[in-house]
Amino acid sequence: MKLYPIETGNFKLDGGAMFGVVPKTLWQRTNPADENNMIDMAARCLLIEDGDRLILIDNGMGNKQSEKFFGYYYQWGDHTLDKSLAKYGFHRDDITDVFMTHLHFDHCGGSISWNKDRTGYKPNFKNAIFWTNENHWTWATKPNVREKASFLKENLLPMQESGQLKFVSSPNSDNETSFVNNSELGFDILFVNGHTEKMMLPHISYQGKTLVFTADLIPTVGHIPVPYVMGYDTRPLLTMDEKATFLEKAVSENYLLFLEHDAHNEICNLQATEKGVRFDQIYTFDEVFSK
Questions:
Q1: Helix, strand, or coil here: 92?
Q2: Helix axis angle, 153-161 relative to 134-141, nearest 10°?
Q3: Rounded to an integer, what distance in angstroms lies between the CA atom of residue 115 and that of residue 92?
Q4: Across-strand partners of 57?
Q5: CB burial class (10 A; 0-12, 13-18, 19+) of residue 287?
Q6: What's the pTM?
Q7: Under a CB-based contact definition with an 8 Å cutoff, are residues 24 and 102 in contact?
Q8: Average pLDDT for consecutive 10-residue bins of the chain (291 residues)?
């Protein structure tokens, strides 16, 4: 097995929205804002090469939305999905599986692109299976008012219409944070429900370490303290409970956290302090894993 960080593009979001009720004087220490209160964000994905399979975890915003749409997100830098794949000698047509932690547009928008004459949509990974779970698919395709703007039908329905959509098994309980051992994809999945229904966090064993793709449970190093919860979360109190449980286990088992949305920090580990769990060391991917 080999792992590769895939940078699909950077953008900006309102710092207050990203930190909910936490005062700016606190969150700006780790996530400084610009003059418009916007903070730097990444859409960092992960590619798993395992035998003849190439599994891509999340895929960023894509590029099919309107200029007005992207005007809200202040894209910056020159990262793209295709350039990042090419850096490691791959093309999107090589991808065999696309695993989506959840179906908000900044995590799955790259799944679908315009067709050639821009009259409709087509899968961006023509040879891949698209993986989600049935509970979250129903949640996303019949969205609540709070999340309606994050679940875009043009990102979702073409996956189903192409016949490439497949569901992983979900926990038996609808309420408990649970692990599922997924033999089909080769990694364990932690299901959490505070950010959105049945978000999935891959736990990947690699080179003797456990790397956790933290998605929107811990989007940046600034979100490690338990109360630092995004305003976007549908159940913030549940997020705090889930995060506290996860952080305790992450310290005891020495997890490495792969940070999807942190534009300046790729990976961190954790330590227990008098103030609670905090990050210990920040690493680049290449500093942690040998090639």
A1: helix
A2: 130
A3: 15
A4: 46, 99
A5: exposed
A6: 0.96
A7: no
A8: 97 97 97 97 98 97 92 94 98 98 98 91 97 97 96 97 94 67 88 97 97 98 98 97 97 98 98 95 94 70
